[in-house]
Prior knowledge:
Layout: H1 11-24, H2 28-34, H3 39-54, H4 60-69, E1 74-83, E2 96-97, E3 102-111, E4 117-120, E5 124-125, H5 130-136, H6 139-146, E6 149-151, E7 168-169, H7 182-194, H8 196-205, H9 221-230, H10 254-268, H11 272-286, H12 297-304
Parallel strand pairs: 1-6, 6-7
Antiparallel strand pairs: 1-3, 2-3, 3-4, 3-5
Amino acid sequence: xxxxxxxxxxxxKIAVIVLAVLxxxxxxxxxxxxxxxxxxxxxxxRDELIGLLAAQAPRLDRALKKVxxxxxxxxxIDGTLIAxxxxxxxxxxxxxxxxxxHHGLHFLALTDERGRLIxxxxxxxxxxxxxxxxxxxxVLAHLRAAGLGALADLGFRGLDNDVLDPVIVTGFHASRxxxxxxxxxxxxxxxxxxxxxxxxxxxxxxxxxxxxxLRTSLARATDLLVHSRDHDSPRRDPRTAHxxxxxxxxxxxxxxxxxxxxxxxxxxxxxxxVAWVSVRRLRQAEAGDVxxxxxxxxxxxxxxx
Length: 305
């Protein structure tokens, strides 16, 4: 259908028009008037091209296995909200996010250590919690099957309840009755720096201005996000320093290990793997795990299998 002789414009021209609509959020009527076609024709071109590109998106398990084959050991996971217009009726109430205080659609995304998007979930109502979306997509099971670890924020706290062999590592949560120790505060700083590439990935994804506020149908929102993932990558190369993990040190050296990781951040940057190993060791130590052995993401995947 793309190369059909019945199209009024050549495929290259159609691709440029659709790119202008998606990248710069140009109005369909403006693009139609400037090319002597109807608004419905531009809309049809947009929907056809989005569907064609979205059909090439990989599944979660295949995306993780590809990362493992390429030598990756840690991925970054996070959730985001894409704003939508407010619609009338009770059916749109589930799209209201109490956290962001506006309507939208919730998406999960995985990036590699450089912040390149490797997978995006299906669209869910804006009120969906990160943990709920991750459980519905079986993210934890797929990570264990691929032998990969993951860095996540506090929104995923409680997703991985295996304190002795965690795959998804999150920060430490403070409350009125539970204050963080100096080691936990240092671990949170290390984790925040290690998770920076995933925020860069989301920032580049939202460079597609059509995502500033979706005006397309909700059924096509998933295809639109997948298309944007396949055609946008970070322009900057984040930290590339890689540390070599060793056996877990005794409990008295926890702060020195995390302090050394933080000093490495100031000197030459921190890799996601170093952040994953450092915070994971502290959690194992607080859980009373005194067993030695391999602590890399590949090890946790093999142990779980």
